[in-house]
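Input structure tokens:
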């Protein structure tokens, strides 16, 4: 057997698939790799296989035994998902209503107002300005605070903890961050029980059959999942549009294309270079395209590769905001598919739509090749995005 490919793969360009990942994908759909932690795992790159395995109950999101391969992503997700994973169907029932279309419609004007305020501030400055700090980071934090019911003045505290929790380089830091995040959520939930408001935490507090621990766990899960992921996509999405004048012009000429443009951006955005893929552990021996995967082994389901599979997406590296993106796996697939997708989509539509409309000449203030993706956290995203206009 070939020597396992070592993760992470070198990312030579922030908007293109790592060459090593592309090369592996062209050779087949499943590959032996070594994780950053030094353990062997299977990397799955073919669209059909990734899609099927994302929704396959022969696989578990948590290690199935204590000797399982280590992977920073899986350790973190197992801790964060905790009770949620054990009682998944019940937790989904509680979590879906806050993302219902009528809730999103009610929240949208607020997201638009917040975006306009941030862009007004930006318009008053002269470039170069870091668009990550001016828009990509503050917007999802403000929205999360409003929607979930978290005091905005606590943003520095909780963003430090969520970033610590998502550290892929330091397991101790990750554990500590997660502990602090849970401690904070415990206080928040206690406060909401005393003083309920019109927000998601208050609604979780009165949801039928949820224990206090479950409300705290879900609050931590939403606070974590709720903004870092979106921050990363606003940054890479803005960069994709800025570096493709033809597509940007098309969008400016017809703003009704924004929902499709966001789907294409989500398909193409690849903000986490260090991560082999969504972690899963085999509960039983499996046969995958002629390869035997043994019970207990770790599989990394690579959504980036799947979203660039040429058998599903014609000329997959090309940006086409009018493309059919139905097969995109950005939000996962099936049973575990992202519950927060409506909120992420709505924010991206507002943020990127308004940005293109108000700053038609915005461009990166440095060469795109100089921009770096974050290697230190699970959610990745650009380290910074200096722009001028
Ligand atoms: C662009 C932004 C986002 C991306 C790319 C994203 C991606 C994903 C993916 C791929 C999964 C599936 C995980 C798996 O199969 O194991 C997932 C699950 C999840 N996401 Fe998101 N997400 C985003 C935004 C959000 C937001 C805004 C929230 C909440 C406010 C959220 C909350 C969750 C939760 C709770 C799950 C677990 C669902 C389950 O296991 O049933 N996500 N997300």
């Amino acid at each position: 057997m070939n020597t396992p490919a070592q993760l992470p793969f070198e990312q030579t360009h922030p908007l293109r698939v790592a060459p090593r990942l592309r090369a592996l994908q062209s050779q087949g759909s499943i590959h032996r790799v070594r994780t950053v932690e030094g353990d062997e795992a299977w990397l799955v790159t073919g669209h059909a296989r990734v899609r099927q395995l994302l929704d396959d109950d022969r696989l578990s999101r948590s290690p199935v035994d204590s000797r399982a391969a280590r992977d920073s992503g899986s350790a973190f997700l197992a801790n964060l998902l905790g009770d949620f994973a054990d009682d998944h169907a019940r937790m989904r029932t509680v979590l879906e209503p806050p993302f219902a279309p009528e809730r999103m419609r009610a929240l949208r004007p607020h997201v638009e107002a917040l975006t306009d305020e941030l862009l007004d501030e930006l318009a008053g400055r002269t470039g170069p300005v870091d668009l990550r700090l001016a828009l990509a980071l503050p917007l999802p934090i403000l929205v999360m605070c409003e929607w979930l019911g978290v005091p905005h003045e606590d943003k520095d505290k909780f963003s430090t903890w969520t970033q610590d929790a998502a550290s892929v380089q330091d397991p101790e830091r990750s554990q500590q961050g997660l502990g602090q995040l849970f401690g904070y959520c415990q206080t928040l939930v206690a406060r909401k029980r005393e003083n309920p408001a019109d927000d998601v935490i208050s609604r979780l507090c009165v949801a039928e059959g949820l224990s206090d621990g479950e409300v705290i766990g879900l609050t931590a899960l939403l606070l974590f999942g709720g903004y870092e992921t979106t921050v990363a996509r606003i940054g890479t999405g803005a960069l994709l549009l800025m570096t493709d004048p033809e597509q940007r012009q098309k969008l400016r000429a017809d703003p009704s294309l924004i929902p499709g443009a966001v789907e294409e951006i989500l398909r193409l955005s690849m903000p986490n270079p260090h991560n082999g893929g969504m972690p899963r552990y085999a509960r039983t021996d499996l046969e995958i395209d002629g390869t035997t995967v043994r019970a207990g082994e770790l599989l990394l389901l690579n959504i980036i590769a799947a979203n660039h599979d040429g058998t599903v997406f014609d000329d997959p590296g090309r940006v086409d905001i009018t493309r059919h993106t139905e097969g995109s796996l950005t939000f996962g697939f099936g049973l575990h598919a992202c519950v927060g997708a409506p909120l992420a989509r709505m924010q991206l539509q507002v943020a990127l739509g308004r940005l293109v409309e108000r700053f038609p000449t915005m461009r990166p203030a440095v060469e795109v090749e100089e921009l770096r993706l974050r290697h230190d956290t699970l959610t990745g995203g650009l380290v910074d995005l200096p722009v001028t206009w």
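The two ends are 52 Å apart (CA to CA). The chain has a mean pLDDT of 91.
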